[in-house]
Amino acid sequence: MYQAIPYSSTRPWARPSPAAEAAVAVKTETAEASASREDAAGVERAVSESPVVVVGRRACCLTHVVKRLLQGLGVNPAVHEVADEAALAGVVPDGGEAAALPAVFVGGKLLGGLDRLMAVHISGELVPILKKAGALWL
To answer: Domain Glutaredoxin: where (predicted)?
Structure first.
């Protein structure tokens, strides 16, 4: 049988003041904005340096599926992990399609997400696209 831990009233619980809560909220917002800018810069750099880049969230199963599909074709994609879709804002043009994670960039251009990658693969157009980008030599 489990025993309850006795409650100690030596340290009373105190609610933080509204000013302290506001300061924590501002710090959180600025930290998130800073992380988003760093993610966006990292994505832009990765897209410009590698022929195939997969941008996704950490430990995302869809990112894993995209990576394994490309590796099965003989491509070694660069995988860049981000916190959210805001990191794609600098890479995807304003008139372009909406980018969702995971996003696949081939030859510096957005190919699309997992659904678009699968559609291009099934139609037989993916291998020529990868050859043209220099990611596949066969």
So the answer is: 52-110
* pLDDT tens for each residue of 40-70: 788 888 888 899 999 988 888 999 999 999 9
Q: Please state whether the predicted TM-score (pTM) of the whole model is above 0.85.
A: no
Number of domains in the chain: 1
- Give residues with Cβ within 8 angstroms of 24, minimum separation 6: 16
Angle at which helices 126-133 and 114-123 cross, to 10°? 100
* Residue 40: CA count within 13 A, CB half-sphere: 14
Q: Give the domain range for residue 74.
A: 20-133
Residue 85's closest CA among 71, 97, 77, 69?
A: 97
How many Å apart are CA 135 and CA 138, to the nearest integer?
10
Give the C-alpha separation, 78 to 55, whole Å.
8
Q: Would 138 be classed as within a structural domain?
A: no
